[in-house]
Amino acid sequence: MKDRLSVVGKSVRRIDALDKVTGRAKYCIDLKVDDMLHAKLLRSPYPHARVTKIDTTRAENHPRIRAIATIDEVPRVVGYWWNLRTEKAMKRMYLQDNVVRFRGDPVLGVAADDEESAQEALSLIDVEYEELPALFDPIEAMKEDHLKIHEGGNIAIHVAKKFGDVDQGFKQADYVFENRFVTSKQKHASIEPIGTAIADYGRSGRLTVYTSTQLPHWSRIYLAGALGLPVNRVRVIKPYTGGAFGGRCGLIHGLEVMCCFLSRKAGRPVKMSFSREEDFEATEARHPFIIELKTGVTKDGILTANSIKLILDVGGYGTHYIGVLADALSTGVGLYRCPNVTFEGYCVYTNKSLNGAFRGYGNPQMNFAQESQMDMIAEKLAMDPVEFRVKNYRGLGEIDPVFDVPIRSDGMKDCLAKGAKKFGWNKKRTRKVDEGTKRRGVGMSCLQHGTGARFGLPDPASAIVMLNADGSANLLTAAADDGQGNRTVLAQIAAEELGIPLEQISVSDTDTDVAPLDGGTHGSRQTYCGGLAVKRAAADAKMALLRFASQHLNVEEKSLEIKDGVVYDVKDRSTNIRVGDLMRKVQIEDLSRCEQIIGYASGVAPAMPPTFGAHFAEVEVDMETGEVYVVKLVGAFDVGRAINPANVEGQIIGGEAMGIGYALTEGLIIDNGKIVNNNFTDYRILRACDVPQIDAIIVESNEPTGPFGAKGIGEATMVGTAAAIANAIYDAIGVRMKELCITQEKILEAIDRGARASGV
Amino acid sequence: MKEGFFRPREYHRPNNLQEATWLLSSFGKKARLIAGGTDLLVDKPSEVECLIDVASLDLDYIRRDGDGITIGAATTLDLIERSQMFSAGPYVVLSEAASNMATPTVRNMATIGGNICNASPAADLPLALMVLDSTVKIYGLGGSRVLPIGVFFEDVNRTALNEDELLVEVHIPPSPASTGASFLKLRRHQTAIDLAVVNVAAKLTCSDNFCEDARIALGAVAKRPIYAEKAKRLLTGKGLDGKLIQEAAEVASQETKSIDDVRASAQYRRRMVAVLVERALKLSVTRCGT
After folding, report:
1. Residue A734: predicted pLDDT
2. CATH class, range A285-454+607-757
3. Would you state the CATH architecture of domain A2-24+460-603?
4. Using CA atoms, how far apart are residues A749 and A82, in angstroms rounded to an integer?
5. Are strands A126-131 and A289-297 parallel, antiparallel or unpaired?
6. What band does B2 get if pLDDT is binned at 50, 70 and 90?
7. What is the pLDDT of residues B189-206, one digit of tens each?
């Protein structure tokens, strides 16, 4: 099949590449609307307080202030699209009270003629607070009965799941391993800061919102609910976006809804733009986890029991925590076959900035713990860590116990084998051990990550393909492209299915007035879920096209094919017609017809196929300073089929780089509720010059439910990086690092501990 | 989250030092000199109303004269990094410090004067200049004066400059033969570009491992860059061996006043001073012969 493909499987140039590299592409910050006002937020200086009085008199007298909207009238959106399923759950999404729950929580917004005046107005507003005691530690918050961050208590949710009989399982085990792991609060740090939007509440009651969201259609519904508008009157337009990574997986706390309220009050469009500092301090980050993991294993290396206890730090407001917890179990723990499992999770509110969706969605945290534990077990059993994984991972034909569906494509063994070979695993593992100041170490990890969300959440994807009189086509899709290139991938799929060149496909803007319902860009789903919708819509258009072709060429439909923009009879290629000629006839020439062919598809994907992957890391540790440098990484991923291999490699390299940051340098430092590293000098993401050699390997297992065999990739790429690096550090220094991020100070302490333990 | 806006209302480009000092003295705290702008345009201080550009003052030069090397305050770090003057002898310590600072794009703009006058406790160049016994020439309403660079720094972002004064040039005296120097910088790991967790410069004059003279300068471990005086005294006039160097490194770490911040704890910094000083001294010894 592969050699018959024309566009799929090729690293074609991004359809938006020229606009981007020439600076023509417009991002939200570039947009201007006539008569536009500028807004600023007044944010709480306290981590926990009740707003008792707001006096805006002085600000209202400011000649350039046009509107003020406060916490007393503007709701916060505190759920996600899980809440859209029932009216009752949807009501719970909108929280409106006068309590601020973290330092930087918005109290009010001011819209003025210009940014400076808006900023000035903030100093003219007097807010009185009744300060409340603050809770920063989730363990303390769990125990606290009197001081409640939210009405229902500090435990947002407690989930307990049980499979098999763990007591029995631990009895069958020859060894039991028990460890506690802690992970950090990582920030998305996308190149475009999170937090720019324009809201235009028109006089006739039509609301247009420009925002760099991953979820145009869900955002539209959230906004309709917040403003009390029917959905048809809300239009969400997503301009070009400079990276998302989950940080735009919902409305931004204090952004769009505030702009809408201010716009409605002022009767003018309102733009607001957070600074990078505001992004760091007051938008969502990755949930820090505390993980207690107990694993039983036989001496032959068979897992018999697994007991997992998780505590998630939700922050001041909850959005994605249920999903993140569920993914830690399904895609995280579910990686391995184990008959007896208990899983217990607590999601706990604290008076810190909120946590939400972030590339990997609970899986990187769980994977760090589990893959560190697996490494310890392999060592104890004197097994090669790779072999130990091969023995235990849940593969082809096996049933996912959480969703009860079989795995239909499985490239894990290839990922492990090809990754190990490229890395030189066997040779490096059996190398001579270093004894000097600089010591090398190697480590690996593996993972799976589900594609899409169809077994847990509403997960629609839709597409419309409209054929034009010259044989070209317009693809209408609301599949948000955050910069990863999925609009290009969807265009490739449409071109392949229709049999026309890629240049003849145009992809619509991401606009809810133009493009049909889509569940958003998250869960590594757009190639798979979005791709399936596009493929079906293109097939639908093709079917109609072939019906006309059949009449015109007098050939049976089923013996017609389209390739390179020509419809031909497979039995006799000389019977053919160009798609353009045919379309012109149908659409314009034939006055009795004059019809546009429109293909359409909407619905959910049939499965949530797991992407498999393996990471191999080589590090060098300085025994005197504790510094570690990742020298080399290999990432091998089973993507079913790479629709655009260069895009897949880009995802792998970017994900690994982000994973190195998660492992070694990234983590918000919070002192008494205040985020102190709120900039790129103090919060270190990797720069291009910090990224080591990363070898990206693509494995293609051909997912039978996927478009041309494809499944997801985006998130999987950083899931196991931290564990592979931590395992390599162990190999170098002989001490386990169980807390992220692994700073050089922590490594030096570990080296000291190791030296004490061995009596040196 | 920042309050206020950086929006200077005036921009001046004085043609000579007199004009510059006149502008500085008349605008006082509301004026700021701008050279490369790599600190100023990042900090964007909202109190600044007047920018005084040093571009027309002809302060970008590196000259060798009878009495050492003189560097104009507006010389870019990139020029210093690539200059032949700092490619051999103890003077390499300056190009090492320059090449360890920031990114090539920043080094193309940032100047030595700016790096000195910003008076960051973690600055890289001052340490190299300190071990080279440099002096700085200052120009003000009352004419010019010269200070040893070690006393130029007073506190975090505070120097000995009066409101009407500006830094004109840096002078490096010649070092005796058999002198070697080195610069080392510890960053947060996996980062090639970072402010120093700890940075260190060392200079040794020695023959046959006998230490005639020594300088050690430490950064990011006090409110200003400091000399490790006790460590210097310990080394001077002694035969150098691994044990003495290690001892001096320990002594140096005791001379610091480290603090905890986002990059590291005080305790870690103290310990790293010892590691870096030991390494810098050993490296300097190997360079004494060349």
Report:
1. 94
2. alpha beta
3. 2-Layer Sandwich (3.30)
4. 44
5. unpaired
6. very low
7. 999 999 999 999 999 999
The closest CB to that of B262, out of A277, A676, A686, belongs to: A676
Please name the member of B5, B191, B193 whose beta carbon is closest to the beta carbon of A116.
Answer: B5
pLDDT band at A759 (very low <50, low <70, confident <90, very high): low
Q: What are phi and psi of A222, to 5 degrees?
A: -60, -45
Of A729, A727, A39, A754, which Cα lies nearest the Cα of A389? A727
Q: What is the DSSP letter of A14?
A: P
Compute, in degrees rounded to 10, the torsion defined by CA atoms A21, A25, A28, A32. Answer: 130
Superfamily holding A31-132+191-243+248-282: Aldehyde oxidase/xanthine dehydrogenase, a/b hammerhead (3.90.1170.50)
Task: Give the mutation candidate from A40, A278, A684, A691 for the B interface (greatest B CB count, under 10 A).
Answer: A684
The two three-digit tokens of residue A408, written as one number: 């239909």
Contact call for A743 and B188, based on CB within 8 A: yes
pLDDT, tens digit, for every residue of B254-270?
999 998 898 999 999 99
The pTM is what? 0.96
- Chain A residues in contact with B123 by the CB 8 A cut-off are none
- Do A281 and B188 lie within an 8 Å CB cutoff? no
ipTM for the predicted complex comes to: 0.94
Residue A74 pLDDT > 70, yes or no?
Answer: yes
Domain at B1-47+60-173: CATH code: 3.30.465.10
As a 3-state breakdown, chain A gives helix, strand, coil percent values, each rounded to 5, of 35, 25, 40
B193 touches chain A (CB under 8 A): yes
- Give the right CATH number for B186-288 from 3.90.1150.10, 3.30.390.50, 3.40.50.960, 3.40.50.2300: 3.30.390.50
Distance separating the N- and C-terminal Cα atoms of chain A: 62
Using a CB-CB distance cutoff of 8 angstroms, which residues of chain B are in contact with residue A686?
190-191
The structural domains of chain A, with segments of one domain joined by +, span 2-24+460-603, 31-132+191-243+248-282, 285-454+607-757
